[in-house]
Amino acid sequence: ENPDKQMLTHNRDIFISNNGLVTYLHSQNGPTGIYVLDLKDNSTTKMPSIGRVEKVQISKNGQQIVFSSNTSSELYIYDLAKRRMIKLPTYDDSTFRAFAISEDGTKVAYVRSMHENAYLFHIEVVDLKSEKIMHLYQIDEVGSRILDLELSDNQVIITHRRSTTNFITKVNLTTKIAS
């Protein structure tokens, strides 16, 4: 069965770019794959990936796809125009809880936790041009859960839950120093 016909009911991590490209994860008789549906011509393309893909997102401009692989605990970006995959600089032994790509496709924000401490969340941003990592914020509260992450040109918005209360934390990018 064609995976685009099942997209809205059987798939996850569905994102739509401003130019009509839809990314989603789909598993059909094998490992989960990344698919791109072009709404203009209704064509579906399976994208290259590494390991078992856990999360995927497309940039608003439709130029880059970011995805994480749980078999290697790594974060990748695939440039659609150049047909090139790049492993993003991150830290070893991490699990990616959420990530977001900026509208212009120049930065990726992510929330990671170390395998041995699932309630310590590090929020960081990678500048794709310089490949520098900015350490923005840390959440260290037992029982916390990351709900959402958004990235604009100048701030990261983290929505997280502790117990039954939701919190929204905004961190300005211009006040942080790249390491």
Word description of this protein:
With 179 residues, the protein is mainly beta. Helices cover 4% and strands 59% of the residues. It has one helix and 15 strands. The strands form four sheets. The chain has a four-stranded antiparallel β-sheet with strand order 1-2-3-4, covered by helices on one side. Strands 5-6-7-8 form a four-stranded antiparallel β-sheet, with no helix packed on it. The chain is globular, with a radius of gyration of 16 Å. The chain starts with a helix and ends in a 7-residue tail after the last strand. Mean pLDDT is 81; it is low at 1-9.
Short description:
The chain contains one helix and 15 strands.
Topology:
Elements lengths: L2 H8 L1 E5 L4 E7 L4 E7 L4 E5 L5 E6 L5 E6 L4 E6 L4 E4 L6 E8 L5 E8 L2 E11 L5 E8 L3 E8 L3 E8 L2 E8 L7
Antiparallel strand pairs: 1-2, 2-3, 3-4, 5-6, 6-7, 7-8, 9-10, 10-11, 11-12, 13-14, 14-15
